[in-house]
């Protein structure tokens, strides 16, 4: 065991590093997270269109607090499956920042879509904008997160 050639050691270290990157690349948020986020997005869109401003504001604050509680458990991105939990060093420490940035971007898309729909004369522009973004979140959330992680090397 003591006679390991430098080339063999380098090959073994490279293989271990590739395996670590592969596992880290598969780390993410569960599918249910994205669908819960989409449902909340639609609910907030409906409330903003049909309810007075103060209940919609309270619902938005409750949604934010609920997301913060959920985020404390899920946004570390370290739960690859129910049985595997990787270290924070392997998962990457930028995942929470990427997810929060993604969600802030989606809020901006929602606002811009609602303004565009309202300018076009659409009834209930906030609801339609929320449904549009909820569909993007529900169906494409994991893929968007994967691309953003690649872009920022998280």
Structure characterization notes:
The chain has 154 residues and is mainly alpha-helical. The chain has six helices and no strands. The protein has helices spanning 6-26, 31-50, 53-74, 88-91, 95-119, 125-152. Helix 5 runs antiparallel to helix 6 (125-152). The two termini are 36 Å apart.
Brief synopsis:
This protein is an all-alpha fold.
Number of strands: 0
Count of helical stretches? 6
* Overall pLDDT confidence: 78
Low-confidence residue ranges: none
How far from one another are the termini?
A: 36 Å
Approximate strand percentage? under 5%
* Alpha-beta classification: mainly alpha
Largest sheet: none
Q: What is Rg? A: 20 Å
Shape call: elongated
Helix content: over 70%
Order of helices and strands: HHHHHH
Keywords:
154 residues; mainly alpha
What's the layout of helices and strands?
Blueprint: H1 6-26, H2 31-50, H3 53-74, H4 88-91, H5 95-119, H6 125-152
């Amino acid at each position: 065991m003591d006679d390991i050639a430098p080339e063999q050691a380098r090959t073994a270290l490279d293989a271990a590093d590739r395996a670590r990157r592969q596992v880290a690349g598969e780390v993410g948020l569960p599918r249910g997270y994205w669908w819960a986020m989409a449902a909340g997005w639609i609910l907030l869109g409906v409330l903003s269109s049909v309810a007075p401003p103060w209940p919609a504001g309270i619902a938005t604050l409750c949604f934010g607090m609920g997301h913060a509680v959920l985020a404390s458990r899920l946004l570390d991105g370290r739960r690859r499956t129910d049985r595997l939990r990787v270290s924070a060093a392997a998962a990457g420490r930028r995942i929470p920042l990427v997810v929060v940035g993604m969600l802030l971007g989606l809020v901006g898309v929602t606002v811009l879509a609602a303004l565009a729909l309202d300018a076009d004369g659409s009834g209930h522009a906030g609801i339609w904008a929320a449904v549009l973004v909820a569909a993007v979140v529900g169906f494409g959330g994991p893929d968007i997160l994967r691309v953003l992680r690649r872009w920022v090397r998280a």
